Fold this sequence. Notes:
Two copies of one chain form a homodimer.
Chain A: H1 5-8, H2 19-27, E1 31-34, H3 46-53, H4 69-80, E2 91-95, H5 96-108, E3 114-119, H6 124-131, E4 135-140, H7 152-156, E5 163-169, H8 181-193, E6 197-201, E7 227-232, E8 244-249, H9 252-264, H10 270-279, H11 285-306, E9 321-325, H12 331-340, E10 347-350, E11 352-353, E12 367-371, H13 376-400
Parallel strand pairs in A: 1-10, 3-4, 3-5, 5-6, 6-7
Antiparallel strand pairs in A: 2-8, 7-8, 9-12, 11-12
Helix pairs in contact in A: 3-10, 4-10, 5-6, 5-9, 11-13
Amino acid sequence: MKYAQRVNAMQASPIRKLVPYALEAKARGIKVYHLNIGQPDIKTPKGFFDAVKNFENEVLEYAVSPGIPELISSLQEYYTTYDMHFNNDEILITNGGSEALLFTMMATCDPGDNLIVPEPFYTNYNGFSQCVNVNVKPITTKAENGFHLPSKEDIISRIDSKTKGILLSNPGNPTGAVYTKEEINMIADIAREHNLWIIADEVYREFVYDGLDYTSFGNIKEVEDRVVIIDSVSKRYSACGARIGSLACKNKGLIAQILKLCQGRLCVATLEQLGAVELYKTPTSYFKEVNAEYKKRRDVLYNELMKVDGVVCEKPTGAFYIVAKLPVENAENFVIWMLTEFNKDGETVMACPAEGFYATKGLGRDEVRLAYILKEDDLLKAAKLLKEGLEQYVSLSKAKA
Amino acid sequence: MKYAQRVNAMQASPIRKLVPYALEAKARGIKVYHLNIGQPDIKTPKGFFDAVKNFENEVLEYAVSPGIPELISSLQEYYTTYDMHFNNDEILITNGGSEALLFTMMATCDPGDNLIVPEPFYTNYNGFSQCVNVNVKPITTKAENGFHLPSKEDIISRIDSKTKGILLSNPGNPTGAVYTKEEINMIADIAREHNLWIIADEVYREFVYDGLDYTSFGNIKEVEDRVVIIDSVSKRYSACGARIGSLACKNKGLIAQILKLCQGRLCVATLEQLGAVELYKTPTSYFKEVNAEYKKRRDVLYNELMKVDGVVCEKPTGAFYIVAKLPVENAENFVIWMLTEFNKDGETVMACPAEGFYATKGLGRDEVRLAYILKEDDLLKAAKLLKEGLEQYVSLSKAKA
């Protein structure tokens, strides 16, 4: 039997494909610290569970296709705290941020069209685009510059007649970069001058450290008719398993297009939407606490990495990832080695090779993405193990050479 | 700003597009009986809610991408009661049957490929296929024949070099047709002879009346490497708002393809999966009761329809829909008239025009789909209102002519 080329060409998830090595290590009794995946250990706000448990209807009916009005209005109010103003018919609730991204790609791009995306990027951008026959045109950003954007000319040189938009995450997954107001304005200018959509994945909006200012694309009035804001409760409220995402857009024509896709899949889970209503009512103080916690974790991991000769990375200012260039030739081999050959007192660490976060062939081969999502003491242990493993691996490689 | 052609070309949901007329009628104080949408009023088995309410983790984590093992194994056991045998790595859990269908289309068809589909068909088949650039090639079935399949030659004549599979629902939505074992074997033969996938939407498997035998495509050994079984808890357990669907396939290559899509969207909601584990453990006696209830409802609606001169339909033997040819020129106009002009003692009925369930232009214009999903006394009232409205409308039309 034949399979479709578009799915056949999709790479396996770089975040998940090495999991069998971790399972084998665990089978040998090794404890594995997972820095490979962004599953936070922060408690989900209790309001979520209370709302779900208080559901009293005897029939679990379809919800309305655009999302339940209570959730849309809860999200609206959340946005106003960022000075973003959406009417209730400018917001759609989706099955995770994933569906919001997929639907936005489908509604803005026909097969063969492309989107400009700064690389390294969230690896599933590749998957979503491939399965709907949209091409990713990467603009390369570098560890040495903290993964900030290249010049306007560089970006414009990537645009062609098939380019329909610019897709970017801010704060960045996997880079941890937070774009400056100047960068945001530059992208906005390019989009206006070249008539492009801006697909702004802002699911890490709250995870910004060091007192940095954050500018959302939802704050730039001049592009409000071409901006789609993608959001999700997954990281924001540590509710990854809820699968509640959303998109917001002041271009009512685009909303009407995407609503057809929403109607096609009928609705998003009713109970999870009721829970999410409460999440978006969580007081801002919650973010302050969580933020302080992640900042501490970032510092722990970053400080250990800096102790290793040859590691290159800027201290990230957002999200909860670090992309680090390692003094190795092939980071995937190193990650596998850590799971198969290395352990200290029965413990090791799993990182995520970063090559799959690039569209340009060959880039990122010596880089890993590390998620700082463990409790401080676990993370410190993991970071020390990583340092020690890396040092051993490097000296072994030198000995062989 | 420009929109993608593929979504722009999608029709608005025929099931939902006339809802504004119903809302206006309600605003005028009219009670509207909804026969336009398949939202059952049957209670969701309590085990679902209990499982959700018993969740005690403090972090709502991602579930694994293929679906939680407990649900997969619960579904496996359910299948064995139908003599269908799937290994646990041959089942994937999806966001409703909708996602299962969308992923299967993506993984079997590239843009420009087509699927053979008996029409009238579940209207969202059209939407899913259009947004991933797959064409629907209809084979027309008729009210006069109870919507049974045409001859093998007729079907084969629709196959071309771009045809990748046959997609069909059994029991049929909207037709209520249950295919005979001979029809199932005919489709299986065609698929083997022409190397096609069979995408079998069997979400109404339990809704078969009059003691009829039901044959699943999962029972035909000869095509097990080319059959994808689509399922959902929505109608089966009256849990439409759970959004738990699944696909089962013994072709491990196809499962591997679709797993990449599952990994791309990360996972299906954790709590809803836990609830669904219990649904698939519901004792078979549940279906007997529900079945008897729907059979009663079908008879009520069918008997009223038969009292109107010029109505054409065979008594459906499955699902919970009737497609009826009405003695009107344009069924959509009649549905709108029922909502805007007609009422009896402040009550009226909403039906669903069937034209949107056909791919062939012009077909179904004089047909409606009616869902018999209301309690018997409400349904009888609704059926009598429909009969009365129809008779009035027909005599008004004659007076005008």
